[in-house]
Q: What sequence folds into this?
């Protein structure tokens, strides 16, 4: 069952990350690439490379027949989907399983279960894990809305069942604004989605986004590797992540970790995954969703736990036992990750693809750099704008902040605008220095 | 498609089969030997990313000694773009007009693979090949089959002309964009 040859069904920095883990495990690597990714760095290090299609993701990295075809001709026995693309596509996992190829991730049924947000919330509730209190279904009338709101407790959010993009949403702090909001939300939902159905949820003011990394194997072993605070977001895109969270103490860590394990066990989880919570101002945490994949910010947890998550994912998929006990795990020091994107933070984050001029990565003590870029590399316009991740790991948060400032100022990315100047400004902001931020922080002060 | 140690590695000219990727092509090694002979150097040693090459020039009457140690990180051979295309250059959205192999007429057109799979010259093992060198093709003519996930896909020429050269062997795996046939319009 030991994996001998693995195909990396992804690109950019995560493809390089996966390749590195394979090299260290003595596993042969097959790298697939689209025509837009011909100059990708990890291709130089792979044992075999296969061009699978044009730059358009739908005809390359998202095209299951092309990927499976490549896997067959390259004779691989495992596929790592990375993150994004098909990483949480239950059908892809199923196709791999039926072709006798190890899918490096959880089973297809688990992906399908956890990927459905309402099913996941129901699962969490059954497992005794707190979720955001709500109406548990559509509101039937104004009276129903009032009674539900009073039992949940104000403030509440009225949300459109078919909604998205912030439309059909209203916050209410009392009975009067609830009644007004109920009718207004229904009108907006009808106009935007042809469905006036609304439901109610507790409105968590200034929440923090705190997630727990879990890791499992096929023998029923499951551990949690501490939490990551990902409150620094812009339009629901994470920008900076850190572990431990400034608001989580050892006792809360244990409770959150156990809650994450409960949800994971209920979903029969047997790989690396993340359980996401919202934390309110009183430090109550509520399960919101589970991500059945490895995440961009996984290095933050790797640094504080000393566990190589990608290596373990691969080994678990090959049938090995985890070999890590919960009691041996602890959070050591403080880690922070800054996602460097090829975007102009002073021009509404306009993407800036193109040829990088001189490229000098950061280094020195406490600095880890995960990136696929190099001098002269052309950042293609077809995909996301992530060009690298700076991960800092020091003994204390204060030291990590100083190292972060130093490392970010060292990076030279010629010719291309990046989000680095924004991070240097954030690092000077008192709220961030105090660790006192919420998910609205970036939009409040830096937009 | 590029491979490291399978036999029949079409993409490098060296035909090396010493069990690992070479970091220099055979022509380059020959050139280095000539350089040594001309300069009178007795020994040459090159190292790059863990791969080593050592050339010791013969004392009169003895053989030239060449030792190549492959790098644990295959360099060069592991990333060789399909024949006829410039390596590691700006390759975004390169449409058509692929440079043709040297020694052939200037306006040679390449039929490229539209998919990943296994190339077959005939509809079945006993049948005749769809085309051979010298045949005339038109856009609708089926020139080969590419099998992907047990589905046999008939590939049409999509161009007119005469088949000059068949670039892949029967049963060989092919990648997207890989040149299959050279056609003289």
A:
């Amino acid at each position: 069952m030991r994996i001998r040859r693995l195909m990396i069904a992804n690109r950019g920095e995560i493809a390089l990350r996966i390749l590195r883990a394979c090299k260290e495990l003595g596993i042969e690597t097959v790298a697939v690439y689209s025509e837009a990714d011909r100059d990708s760095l990890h291709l130089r290090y792979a044992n075999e490379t296969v061009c699978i299609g044009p730059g358009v993701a739908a005809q390359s990295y998202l095209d299951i027949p092309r990927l499976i075809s490549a896997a067959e001709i390259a004779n691989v026995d495992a596929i790592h989907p990375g993150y994004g693309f098909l990483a949480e596509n239950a059908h892809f996992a199923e196709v791999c399983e039926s072709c006798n190829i190890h899918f490096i991730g959880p089973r297809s049924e688990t992906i399908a279960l956890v990927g459905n947000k309402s099913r996941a919330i129901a699962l969490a509730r059954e497992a005794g894990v707190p979720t955001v209190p709500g109406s548990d279904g559509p509101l039937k009338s104004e009276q129903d809305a009032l009674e539900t709101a009073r039992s949940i407790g104000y403030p509440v959010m009225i949300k459109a069942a078919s909604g998205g993009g912030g439309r059909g949403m209203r916050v209410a702090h009392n009975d009067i604004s609830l009644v007004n909001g109920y009718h207004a939300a229904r009108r907006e939902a009808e106009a935007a989605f042809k469905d006036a159905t609304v439901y109610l949820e507790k409105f968590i003011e200034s929440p923090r986004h705190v997630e727990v990394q879990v890791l499992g194997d096929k023998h029923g072993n499951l551990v949690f590797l501490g939490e990551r605070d990902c409150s620094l977001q812009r339009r629901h895109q994470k920008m900076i992540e850190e572990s431990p969270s400034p608001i989580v103490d050892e006792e809360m860590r244990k409770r959150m970790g156990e809650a994450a394990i409960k949800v994971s066990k209920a979903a029969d989880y047997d790989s690396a995954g993340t359980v996401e919570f919202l934390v309110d101002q009183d430090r109550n945490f509520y399960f919101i969703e589970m991500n059945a994949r490895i995440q961009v910010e996984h290095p933050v947890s790797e640094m504080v736990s000393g566990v190589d998550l990608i290596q373990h994912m691969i080994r678990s998929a090959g049938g090995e036992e985890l070999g890590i006990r919960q009691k041996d795990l602890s959070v050591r020091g403080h880690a922070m990750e800054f996602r460097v994107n090829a975007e102009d933070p002073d021009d509404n984050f306009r993407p800036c693809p193109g040829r990088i001029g001189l490229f000098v990565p950061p280094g020195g003590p406490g600095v880890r750099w995960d990136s696929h870029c190099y001098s002269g590399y052309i950042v293609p316009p077809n995909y996301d704008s992530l060009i690298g991740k700076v991960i800092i790991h020091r003994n204390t948060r204060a030291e990590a902040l100083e190292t972060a400032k130093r490392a970010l100022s060292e990076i030279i990315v010629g010719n291309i605008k990046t989000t680095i100047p924004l991070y240097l400004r954030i690092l000077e902001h008192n709220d961030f220095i105090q660790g006192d931020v919420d998910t609205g922080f970036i939009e409040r002060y830096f937009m | 498609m590029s491979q490291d140690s399978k036999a029949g590695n079409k993409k490098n000219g060296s035909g090396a089969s010493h069990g690992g990727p070479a970091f220099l092509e055979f022509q380059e090694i020959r050139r280095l030997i000539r350089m040594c002979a001309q300069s009178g150097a007795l020994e040459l040693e090159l190292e790059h990313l863990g791969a080593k090459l050592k050339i010791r020039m013969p004392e009169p009457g003895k053989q030239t000694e060449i030792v190549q140690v492959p790098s644990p990180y295959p360099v060069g051979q592991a990333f060789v773009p399909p024949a006829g295309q410039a390596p590691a250059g700006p390759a975004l959205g390169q449409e058509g007009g692929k440079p043709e192999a040297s020694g052939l007429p200037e306006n040679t057109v390449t039929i490229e693979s539209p998919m990943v799979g296994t190339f077959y010259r005939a509809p079945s093992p006993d049948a005749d090949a769809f085309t051979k060198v010298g045949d005339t093709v038109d856009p609708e003519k089926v020139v080969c089959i590419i099998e992907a996930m047990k589905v046999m896909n008939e590939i049409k020429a999509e161009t007119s002309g005469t088949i000059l050269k068949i670039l892949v062997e029967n049963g060989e795996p092919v990648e997207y964009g890989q040149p299959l046939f050279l056609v003289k319009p």
